[in-house]
Amino acid sequence: MESLTPIYDIAKEFSENTSRSLFLTGKAGTGKTTFLKKLRRHTHKQIAVVAPTGVAAINAGGVTIHSFFQLPFTPFVPTEAGRKNLIKKIRMTNVRRKVMQQLEILVIDEISMVRADLLDAVDTVLRHFRYRNDVPFGGVQVIYIGDLYQLPPVVVPEEWELISQFYKSPFFFDSYAVQQQPPVYIELDKIFRQSNADFVQLLNEVRNNRLTDKGFNMLKSRFNPGFKLSEHPDFIFLTTHNATANRINKEEMDKLPGEVFRYEATIQGEFPEKNYPNDPVLELKEGAKVMFIANDNGFPRRYFNGRIGTVTHLDESHIFVHCDYDEEEIAVSNEIWENIRYGVNRETGQIEENELGCYIQFPLRLAWAITIHKSQGLTFDKTVIDAALAFSSGQVYVALSRCRSLEGIVLTSPIRRDSLVTDPSVVAYSNNRPSTAQLSSELVQAKEQYDVQLLQSVFDFHFANGQISHLQSLIKKYTDVFNPEGIEHAKELQKEIQELATIGERFERQIETLYHDEVKLCERLTAAADYFTERLDDLNERCSHSPAAIFDIDVSKEYKEDLKNLFTELSLKKHLISNICDDHTAEGYYRFKNRFRVPTFHFKAKDIFEENEEKKPKRSRKSKTEKPAKKASHIITFELYQSGKSVDEIAEERMLAVSTIGQHLTRCVGMGLLDIHEFLDDDELIHEIRKMAAAGGTVGDIFSAFEGNLDYMQIRMALAGDASDEKAGSASKEEN
After folding, report:
1. Cα gap 126→124, rounded to integer Å
2. Each residue of 379-437: pLDDT tens digit?
3. Residues 679, 717: contact at Cβ < 8 Å?
């Protein structure tokens, strides 16, 4: 990451080269969002990003906290009974479970809005599903990003009446998990948004509720109740409530002459309406004031999130916007927002982002007025602020700090001193901020501890022990459907893994003692590798040769999945133990880990009942009657298409989205059932699409490059057809 001031390098080092959790904060405009983006791009750790709201999650490139952890929207009570009740309510899929088990960094953005009880619920879920009830967040490094002086958690009186019995305040730092494991407090200190020293000082006074007479007079000087927004098209109006912003935008739009043009968003796959970044039907006129809501990824960079401009020309499919200081108008292209879900790559076992759907629309919204809440994270040159009805201490600070200069601010209502009251608990927590020198000293120790911890973790079998315990719980729950040999096999596995875990714990203590004696440490690692790999080979062989016979299809499926997960974990341990002797630094650990590929798992169960027809395993409890084999959905679509029906007709008949039918047909192209030329007959165009993809271009990049002349289905089919061509070529070579 780019070096700015020492504190930025310290934050980077703590994130990458220690296991310490961090609270990364800073005044508005200090680069918190930029830091997050660079961390996601460069970290070698398994990372997931979550945020308290849908829009914040989309902006951060992550998912909501409730979605990721499958949490209910009710308050969480941090008692033993409350924790058990929460776990009972959660319906965790195997994929989500695996993501949590592989997780190394959890980033929580906009932490100021996260309630203490919500954070303790996250802690409860991670401890349970990672089989690590002894450590906060199940051993995951947590990076909290946000500014406590901005928007606070939302707490309705009825809910606070309940949770106030357990928490001093609703802020995240008063959660039990944070009290048990306080994060390193790092405050970014370089302000990029404002440069005038007096204005920066004023914002600090507002932020800290220490407004001097000089600062108060500076605010009073910006009060202009007679200001008319319609006479100043380069200003944007910030207000506290949505209704006010919508009313102003409608009134100003109605004043403009000319035709209204409507631009409808394209929504593919899953994309919740509450997460839409702007109106799905964008209505504009020439002369409308608009704000860009995304950064231009092209070069040169023509616009950024928050830049204001005026619509100069419109037609059915094009929008042109002119911004101050630019000679040329901007031809606006569609932007793509992705709705992602975290999953685990089957080959590498690593966390990956899977696109569930996307929202495609021009990155604009009407900008005569927006709410202060929606302005968080944006930067403006000129703003009109009405904060008379501010309902939280952070709203006034957020509004004022959006602007680059004091001269760019107009206040239509006076700022009252009582609206600047900062929550005392926030002030008290902020006073704990350590100095740069303290952080530097702490970093040296934390990095060394991390190297030792990573090496120890290679011989830590807690997770494998948790996996076999989970499998035993399954057997205990459904004992009546397991044969005695299968039950005994699982008991023996558990006994051996527990024994291995005990030996591993003893060796971990040796590592800590010998860590600074390189020669002796290498000798012990070599000897340990011989011992542990032999034991792991034996355990994996036994996982692959289970004698279990299970009289229930659903239970059998879960049993095999659990056994495969255990096999994968033990295989990873063997891989790391075999290589760690060569390089036991943190860098070596991640290099070896990233080389790991999940080995093939064959469940070779011996069915001791196969000779007894009456005792063959029963059908699933979910299916008491014999059902005919179900035809795959994409094959049904293929047959309807072959019968001459169009995509729209098939979608209507099957009552599915057009995008879903497109996915079915794309799959058929990839399988070689359909020819790509039925949908795209230009070979040069197909070649160009595949060339762009080979160079690293995403489907969205290709869509933008062709400026809407190709649809997403055609692009995906061209790429699917490429895979089909490769298969056909390989088959041809084999025949020859």
Report:
1. 6
2. 788 899 987 766 565 778 888 888 888 999 999 888 777 667 777 888 889 888 898 99
3. yes
Secondary structure (DSSP) of 261-304: EEEEPEEEE---GGG-SS-SEEEE-TT-EEEE-S---SSS----
Return the SS3 of 314: strand
Q: What is the CA radius of gyration of the chain?
A: 29
Q: Nearest CA to 115 among 162, 62, 49?
A: 162
If DSSP codes are grouped into helix, strand and coil, which group holds residue 173?
helix
Task: Encode pLDDT of 614-673 as tens digits.
Answer: 444 444 444 444 445 557 778 888 888 888 888 888 877 877 767 678 878 888 888 888
Rounded-to-integer distance, Cα 594 and Cα 585, Å: 14
* pLDDT for residue 467 is more than 80: yes
Query: Measured at the alpha carbon of residue 254, what is the angle toward residues 248 and 255, in degrees to the nearest 5?
Result: 95
- The 3-state DSSP class for residue 106 equals strand
Query: Who has greater pLDDT, 374 or 570?
Result: 570
Residues in the chain: 736
DSSP string, 188-209: E---SS---HHHHHHHHHHHTT
422: phi > 0 → left, psi -120 to 50 → alpha, else beta; which?
Answer: beta
pTM of this structure = 0.68
For the segment 225-258, what is each residue's pLDDT rounded down to a tens digit? Answer: 888 887 887 889 998 888 888 899 999 999 999 9
Cα 391 vs. chain centroid, distance in angstroms? 30
Give the bridge partners for 142, in sequence order: 106
**DSSP annotation of 630:** P
Contact call for residues 323 and 309 (beta carbons, < 8 A): yes
Burial class (CB in 10 A: 0-12, 13-18, 19+), 387: buried
Distances (CA, A) of 508 to 104, 135, 394, 452: 20, 17, 47, 9
Burial of 558 from C-beta contacts in 10 A (0-12 / 13-18 / 19+): middle
How many Å apart are CA 501 and CA 536, to the nearest integer?
12
Give the pair of three-digit tokens for residue 26. 């800073």
- Peptide bond between residue 300 and the one before it cis (omega within 30 degrees of 0): yes
Q: 330 is written with which tokens?
A: 């901007």
Nearest to 231 by CA among 60, 70, 368: 368
Backbone dihedral region for residue 41 (phi beyond 0: left; psi -120 to 50: alpha; all else: beta): alpha
**CA–CA gap between residue 53 and residue 74 (Å, rounded):** 15
Q: What is the DSSP string of 598-617?
A: PPP-------TTTT-GGGSP
Measure the N-to-C terminal CA separation of the chain; round to a whole number of Å: 52
- Give the C-alpha separation, 259 to 731, whole Å: 58
Which residue do the tokens 């795959």 mark? Answer: 632
**Tokens standing for 365?**
């919204």
